[in-house]
Amino acid sequence: MDSLLLQVLNGLDKGGAYALIALGLTIIFGTLGVVNFAHGALFMLGAFCTVVLNTLLKSSFQSAEPTGVDFLGRPSFDDILYVNHWFGENVGNFIVDWAVPLSILMAIPVMLIVGYTMERGLIRHFYKRPHADQILVTFGLAIVLQEIIKGYFGANPIPIPAPDAYAGVLDIGTYFGFEPGAVSYPARRFVYFAFSVVVISAVFAFLQFTTFGMVVRAGMADRETVGLLGINIDKRFTTVFGIAAVVAGLAGVMYTPILSPDYHMGMDFLVLSFVVVVVGGMGSLPGAVLAGFLLGILQSFASMNEVKAILPGIDQIIIYLIAVIVILVRPRGLMGRHGVMDT
Amino acid sequence: MTFSNQKQKDYLITALFAVIVLLAPILLQPLGLGFADMVQKLAIFGIFAIGFNILFGLTGYLSFGHAAFLGVGSYAAMWAFKLLSMNPIIALLFAVVFAGLFALIIGFVSLRRSGIYFSILTLAFAEMSYRLAYSVLTPITNGETGLQLVQSDPRIIDTAVFGIDYGAVLPTSSLFGIQMTLYPGFYFCAALLIISFYISVRIFRSPFGLMLRAVKSNQNRMNYTGLHSRPYTLAAFVISGMYAGLAGGLMVVTDPLAGAERMFWTQSGEVVLMTILGGVGTLFGPILGASTIKMAEVKLTEQNYQTLSEAFSFLPLGLQEFMVSVASWFTGDKWHLTIGLLFMVIVIFLPGGLVEGIRRLAKLVKRKITKKDQSDTASTVAAE
């Protein structure tokens, strides 16, 4: 029983990442009708926002006065972090320690600008073109973005430490009445799950409770009529694309302590999140979230030794297998609306 | 020159193509790309892209999982080498048949859906094959090491029928005594490329090809007229899978090693890139795109600081440094950036690919010439 709970927990953080990326993809597909293959690249850009901020915070200068002598007897200098110099030792160390959550503040404007630029500069010219063209041009864009990142940051993964406050292990089992130590779970993964829930709720609240969100939802249902009512839907959709980019970026920012970012992490997640979107139903936001968590949890169940003993290799292919079954049996996905991409 | 019928024209096109392919090592010599490995690669990827074009170019079904057939072809050819004989023809037969069967199964399932669902289904199947090849199927695929020839392989036909004993050396594939490496290997690939090209020309012209085009332009209307389109699309899928299998088999014939990375989805992406870059649905497009990408890969990766400095040495010193630093972003190990940008430009401005570009250029030149002729005649008329 406790091992089952552990598997559910293990699936939650990966499921959170799937759900966030798939949510952004679905928003873009549902509103703009664009299949965005560059969405994984946006996830990666978010992760690299953290890398940039982390490097910036760790930038230092040499002390003016020698602080000691090295082993050759020459005077040696200490490296002093700028943040320590500006804010004092305590605050400085705190800021460096909390670099990952702080990156959220940086990632939001950056990803918003990236999203706006992408929509204005490229995507909007592809609204009327067939899906295949959209896939191809965004695929090209993804390659370009990922090569630029590779050019600046190199091909190796860059480890980013989590804040000390959540570097430890949570003994979740005790909350459910198990033995202490039976179900221990890294705190950073739990933080990621909580974070993804917050972001997802924020997106849903935004769409559900604001006038802007209402217009967007109306636009998802019937774009033409909304336009006929005198609402400039194109302008709103640019913002929607920006929001989707921010969601993907935030997913990337917070995922860095779990997976060291490298230039092809976007492509790795892209394929999976497309599968998630299809399983959830093209254009269905709750479907994307549900399918994200569901597939994350199923994947971690499939990697249990007991399951692998019965069906060898199932952990590698479970997600794709489910996608194939869903597409064949119920093409509109788990929660897709009737008649939307139903063939 | 006019031709009375289409067939003669096709023969001429194929003959022209054959001449270009067979002379490729000489034609590419000035570019420094005439070496055997390179032209072999061009021919092999040409076959792969031509096959992909039969599916995507004619029916419009965008498969993102063609690399799986490449991989299956490679493994099948490798096992034919290990178990039966080092004769490439047997290995290629194996590769084509197995890839075809595999394509039949995947196509039968995937073709129940169209559009993006089809793309995702093929992608999912290819990804499953890739992952299984790395994990559970290790006895067949030898996992990460890749499948290799070993001295103790049985090679039944070789030992029993021909009585060849390879002794202590690892055998290379040989066609009745001709080693399939270097230029002989290339001419073997080239012969198959020409045959594949001719077959694709025949398919393009045939009523079958016309049916496939009908699927692309309006499948609903086709169904309403009472035609069942799936057998046609399935046939196209299997044919293009067999082409991919042939390409995978040839990779093994020229270099006996088969690894699972050939099935990774970026490999499928590459063949999509090639076909789009050259021109979807055209005869020469895929091979043009395949050779452009493969040649650009070699040319761009071999550039380094020194060669770039030499290339820009005609500029004043400061400007030279600047140009070198700009160009270094697009060459060396960053060559994918160039390909990505080129690909985006093509999709945005030239959806017909390089072939359409050439066609437009030719039209422009032609119009200019005729305009000049007209103005010439006009001026002479005025003078009279």
In short:
The complex is a heterodimer of chains A (343) and B (384). Chain A has 343 residues and is mainly alpha-helical.
Describe the 3D structure.
The complex is a heterodimer of chains A (343) and B (384). With 343 residues, chain A is mostly helical. Chain A has one domain (2-58, 78-329). Helix content of chain A is 67%, strand content 5%. Chain A is built from 14 helices and six strands. Chain A has helices spanning 2-32, 39-57, 82-87, 89-97, 99-121, 131-153, 187-209, 211-221, 223-228, 233-255, 265-280, 285-302, 305-310, 314-329, and strands spanning 60-62, 68-69, 75-76, 79-81, 169-171, 184-186. In chain A, helix 2 (39-57) packs across helix 10 (233-255) and helix 7 (187-209) runs antiparallel to helix 10. The radius of gyration of chain A is 23 Å and the shape is globular. Chain A starts with a helix and ends in a 14-residue tail after the last helix. With 384 residues, chain B is an all-alpha fold. Chain B has a domain at 35-283: ABC transporter involved in vitamin B12 uptake, BtuC (Orthogonal Bundle). In chain B, 72% of the residues lie in helices and 2% in strands. Chain B has helices spanning 6-22, 24-27, 36-59, 67-83, 88-110, 115-134, 138-141, 156-162, 182-205, 207-224, 230-254, 265-278, 285-301, 305-311, 317-327, 335-349, 353-383, and strands at 147-148, 174-175, 178-179, 257-258. Chain B is globular. Chains A and B meet through helix 6, helix 11 and helix 14 of A and helix 6, helix 12 and helix 16 of B.
Secondary-structure blueprint:
The complex is a heterodimer of chains A (343) and B (384).
Chain A: H1 2-32, H2 39-57, E1 60-62, E2 68-69, E3 75-76, E4 79-81, H3 82-87, H4 89-97, H5 99-121, H6 131-153, E5 169-171, E6 184-186, H7 187-209, H8 211-221, H9 223-228, H10 233-255, H11 265-280, H12 285-302, H13 305-310, H14 314-329
Helix pairs in contact in A: 1-7, 1-10, 1-11, 1-12, 2-5, 2-6, 2-10, 2-11, 5-10, 7-8, 7-10, 8-10, 11-12, 11-14, 12-14
Chain B: H1 6-22, H2 24-27, H3 36-59, H4 67-83, H5 88-110, H6 115-134, H7 138-141, E1 147-148, H8 156-162, E2 174-175, E3 178-179, H9 182-205, H10 207-224, H11 230-254, E4 257-258, H12 265-278, H13 285-301, H14 305-311, H15 317-327, H16 335-349, H17 353-383
